[in-house]
Amino acid sequence: MSRRTVVIPHLGRVEGHGGIFVRIEGNRVAQVEMDIFEGSRYYEALLKGKHFQEVQGIITRICAICSASHTVTALQALENALGVKVSERVHDLRGLLLLGATIESHALHVFALALPDFLGYESVLAMAGDYREEVVQALRLKQLGNKIQDLIGGRAVHPVNTLVGGFGKLPRHRELESLAKELEQALPVLDRFVDLAASIPLPQVKPGPTVYVALRPYVEAFRFRGVSLCTSRGEEYPLEAYREVIREFTVEHSHAKHAALEAGTTYMVGSLARLKLWGHYLTGRAKAAWTRLIPDPGDDNPLLNNWAQLVELVHSVERALEICQELLGQPEEARDMVDYQVRAGRGIGAIEVPRGTLFHEYELDEAGRVVAANVITPTAQNLANLERDLRAAAEAALAPGAGLADKELKLRLEMVARAYDPCISCSVHLVRS
Amino acid sequence: MDRRALVVGFGNPLMGDDGVGLAVLEALRKVDLPPEVRLAEGGTDATSLASLWEGEEVVVLLDALALGRTPGSVTVLDRPALRELATAQPHVHALALPACLEWVCLAQPALAAAQVYLVGVEPATVAPTHALSPQVVAAVPQAVRQVLELVSGARAGTGE
Predict the structure, then answer these.
(1) Domains along the sequence of chain A with CATH
(2) Any A CB within 8 A of B21 CB
(3) Is the ipTM, as predicted for this complex, more than 0.95?
(4) Which of A110, A212, A301, A387 meets the CB 3.0–4.6 Å disulfide criterion with A276?
């Protein structure tokens, strides 16, 4: 019996944390394992004993791309623990911050990491020879996301203006007007990216039926702030039940925790999950992009997550523009903070962030120090389902007539892993030879 | 001097020596720098350079640089040397600094005309810890000296 092993290293950049490992015996996929560094346990330990006001400075270090997402989710959890109710304007501004994070994250992933695969280039730089304008526009869109985070969060990389109780400084009207203009200019650019995506046939990966999980939006609209946890099987749970619904477990081959629903059912969170559950709430250009790029609502090809991110990118620009206009209709004020008393308590935060549902939970003592912290990232939730899809992709490659050589199989596996947009490598940054 | 310079520190201070770029940045904050030199933090995403650069003629990037040398070795690379790393570096998910730099230069051709350098420190340990290794701590003053020479125009990067 022939045996071959396909290994894709360098998936993460932390020493000793491998990548994708596939062992094939004859025509059978004997083993599929993915090992990554996923830092939530480390950060939880770092948070213990810290004052709640120090939490943000630590958790934003989890990842530069995800810092706004962790910030908003942590603030929600801490405010729930302290019994703080913020104003609708604060919710809107945090929503705008998250939209900025979504624009930045999706632009980087779809244009710089996924599109080169689909168009047959080694990297975004290699793509620039034939698609220079697209490569330049992609970075400008990403910068637009940064700019929103800079304006709302106080700086682009690790927000400092977002506080328990509100915002230390509100954006001025002239700043919002300037941002709105840039958002308007981004819409026709996105139309061209949707045209390009629609012209690319996606490789078919058929892993079997997938269960999708996402938060129910707080209003009947496509929103990232949610009120309950829903599955595509029709179940709905209160947020407080998240630890019973999401069963975290360890596996020998990975440094990261995996997650599954009851009875070990793996599931997917992220853009595709949100569109599967709440895509009918989309409006405008985003709705048109959705129906064009994902025409079959029953298609479980995980590579569609790339196009789902593009749809959300369009939505995020449209929605950010709406929020700017709403804020411009309100009087200009310097700050928006509510007073509160420090007290002991426990609070949960749950937000739909670019890669999926993010949970933070904190228990505080009477002095406001963190007694316990729990963070469940979208990447940890997706890992088990991703391994399932990697197995399906490897099995399809061995099917009669397919006969993919190792090089093509590696690329296909990388594409599946990339489609999930796992947050694995931005936790460190070093340059390697 | 009258050349304006931007110095950007990259890295994650909670991942051991990956945070050395920020440690060098902090050390520079304690130095009496000329007013033409601006310091900034770039986090772990080097495309943030696109938003941070404001037309400075000299740009110095600070980061961990794993070339397999003795931990604590300080290396200065110019843009052509970094460009070689941009094509040689394998990546599955993220874009590394050299690739980000080239991407930003494509979008902002004026940056391509600036003198861009990386001052890199060879890491000993990249793992979940908020402490730098002793070898890397010892290298910070040398990295600071290299930055000061680059921003003052006293030397140019040679790739070594």
Answers:
(1) 43-427 (1.10.645.10)
(2) yes
(3) no
(4) A212
